[in-house]
Amino acid sequence: MDHARIVFGLVALAAALALPYYAGPFWTGLATQMLIFGLLALSVDLLLGHAGLFSLTHASFFAVSAYTVAILQVRYGVSTALAAPAGICAGTLLALVFGLAVRTRGVYFILITIAFGFVVWGVAHRWSSFTGGDNGVTNVPFPALGGLAVTSHTQYYYLVLAAVVACGLGYRVLIRSPFGLGLRGIKASESRMRSLGFRTGLHLYAAFVLSGALASFAGVLYVYYNKFVNPVAASFPISVEAALMAIIGGTGTIIGPFIGSGIVLGLRNWVSSFFELHLAVMGAVFIAAVLWAPDGLVGLAGRLRARMERAKEAGRP
Amino acid sequence: MSAAALEVSALAKVFGGLAAVNGVELTVPAGERRVLIGPNGAGKTTLFHCITGTLAPSSGTIALFGRDVTRLPEHRRTALGMGRTFQITNVFPELTMAENLALAILGTDRRKWVMHRSLAAFAAVRRQALEGLERVGLAGRADEPVKRVSYGERRQLELALALNTSPKVLFLDEPCAGLSPAERQRISRMIAGLPRDITLLMIEHDMDVALGLADRVTVLHQGRVILEGTPDEVRANSEVRDVYFGHA
Ligand SMILES: Nc1ncnc2c1ncn2[C@@H]1O[C@H](COP(=O)(O)OP(=O)(O)OP(=O)(O)O)[C@@H](O)[C@H]1O
Ligand SMILES: [Mg+2]
User: B55, B69, B74: best mutation site toward chain A, by most A Cβ within 10 Å?
Assistant: First the structure.
């Protein structure tokens, strides 16, 4: 079984590496977005799939980081080497504050994160002297490190791919670590975790901050791809979509959020000709996922495989 | 004189208008095995919750080995040596048996904060988890998800979790609840075989199990201690017969 996984991973990686050659710029661009938003969804899923916390404020970290990079690079001419880390720091600092939401649970946690999200969106929207208001900040260049500069969308795609693979590997270690097991324990029974000696509030707070840092990193990748950032990046629908991606693809997995991201972005792209319907289609997809694939497409695939294996066993004389 | 393992004084817990625990005094010397009995709703579980920090008491104090722990959060009390099981099985159904044990081991260990290394790299934790399972008769089921094991095995796991937090004082809330007679016997034998340096408080409805295991017995009724004594004294007491055995 692990062999099949490795083979699948290598094939997927090869397909991803060759993508710009067989798919052309349009699909390469879509794939770049899929990776970036998949990373955002992955950050949401650290809380949702592992700790059992449903955050609807992750667009905040994503956007604060993107704005920080954009403002530093465009307005102050700061180099990528400083602007990108500054973006991650800014988003993570915000996560240190918003992380106080872990004092609440369940629907209160969801509500308070929604409120946080609206505060950030409101600031991006109204504080136009600093954020550029509805227009946002435009003309963000490609990233450049010393003499090494990204000059095309294809190159940038490879950069994002490398960053996502690195994040995926790091994330894998994190969720398999004692800390990661602790998160799943809290999701399953917080009361038992407390009685075993875990300071569950601090555990969740740490996860929230890590998750915010990852969302901030996705924000950095986003702003260099998009070339501009406006209040849409901080908006509620982005937070909802990120969670939706994780749910559709499969929470508690690494590949799931990326699959979900591909589906959501693909669908959005496909129905964008009749844009009004976009949200309705998303809603329908969400309902379908909850009804027929409550553990996402990854879970659905697992169940189908288990069923096929059972059928094979049964068919054997 | 050294301090008692546990000293509870004037403890009360009020739910709305109901005093579930109503001025309990309880002193348990180190190494003693104390059984708590009392009819349904007597406040036994609530008393345990207050002592271990699952619930905050309305008033009163709790001292562990002479140290006031009344205001400490639950996880700190566990770190100081309180371990417990729950009357209603409280394990991690989504995780495997070994992962359940690993959490019990890590809970009182700084390694719970390690983020940069896979748990699989901690061979000692794995070994300890397997030993912990073996100790309660669950060897060989280590990688089974808990949601696929029987109720009886979950009760054994419940006990294993408490034992693996390295408790000095162990609180068992009806460990045999809902088990078959054979499983009951097995678990009570396991409890009887615990090292004597662990101070034990156990809530138990089964009088044979209770009186067989206890050094002393405390009888709770309507949130109050109505009697404390040796098993023989309790058996002979007519008041206990009235409230506990009803009209029998
Ligand atoms: N969270 C709660 N809120 C309100 N009332 C409660 C709560 N927990 C317990 N009670 C009440 O407090 C009283 C004592 O309950 P408790 O569970 O401590 O009894 P017990 O002695 O453990 O009983 P049993 O033998 O049935 O387990 C009962 O009347 C119960 O209904
Ligand atoms: Mg009870």
Answer: B74
